[in-house]
Amino acid sequence: MNIFRFCGDMSHLFSIIVLLLKIYATKSCSGISLKTQELYVVVFLARYLNLFTAFISLYNTVMKVVFIGSSMAIVYCMRRHPAVKRSYDRDLDTFKYQFLVLASFVLALVLHEKFTFLEIFWAFSIYLEAVAILPQLVLLQRSGNVDNLTGQYVFFLGAYRALYILNWIYRYYTEPRFNGWISCISGLIQTALYADFFYYYFISWKNNSKLQLPA
Questions:
Q1: Fewer Cβ neighbours under 10 Å: the N or C end of the chain?
Q2: What does the alpha-carbon distance between residue 142 and residue 31 come to, in Å, rounded to a whole number?
Q3: Of the candidates 121, 116, 79, the residue with the CA atom closest to the CA atom of residue 104
């Protein structure tokens, strides 16, 4: 644990809180990609298969439970809540995310640290998380206008991975046997996907105007 990882975790947690706030306060999921949320459920379930078999710390266990539980709660609301599901932008959320799942799993079978069940699914979760935001970014580009809470959600989600890059750099120089090449490369790709959004988010903040993305 270091300050960069902690801040990254808090940014990730805050993004989830913002999204839950949007859904429960406004009874709307407009501008949110159900496909991205379903991908995050797969990511967390695959990554935390060791939840009941490996105890690292109370903090680690609590964060695992929070990420799994919150991601499943979001998907449930978007699919089942009578008011929320009516606001879902089904016509805009058409990204073929099955290809992301398949490509990530095949890549995990080829590129991994150890050829074991848990390590394969851990690598799969890392690869899938790197591209899970794509359906969300595509939906926002198609809609053009981005409401404040959705913009905040995506920003803090992107900031989480950017802070983790600083965490990996810190660990590289402070831990003699640090080996996180899968996480590092995937994290760089994931952060790069946010570059366009970050640019327009900064312009919006600088001009104190509504966030708009080019169609």
A1: C
A2: 10
A3: 121
Spell out the residues 6+ positions from residue 122 whose beta carbon is closer than 8 angstroms to its own: 46, 47, 49
CB atoms < 10 A from the CB of 149, how many?
A: 18
* 181 contacts 53 by C-beta, under 8 angstroms: no
Residue-by-residue pLDDT tens, the chain, 215 positions:
899 999 999 999 999 999 999 999 999 999 999 999 999 999 999 999 989 888 889 999 999 999 999 999 999 999 999 999 999 999 999 999 999 999 999 999 999 989 999 999 999 999 999 999 999 999 999 987 788 899 999 999 999 989 999 999 999 899 888 888 899 999 999 999 999 999 999 998 888 888 888 86
Q: Which of 73, 101, 91 is nearest to 30 (CA)?
A: 91
Rounded to 5 degrees, φ, ψ at 27 are 55, 40
Q: In whole angstroms, what is the distance from residue 127 CA to residue 121 CA?
A: 10
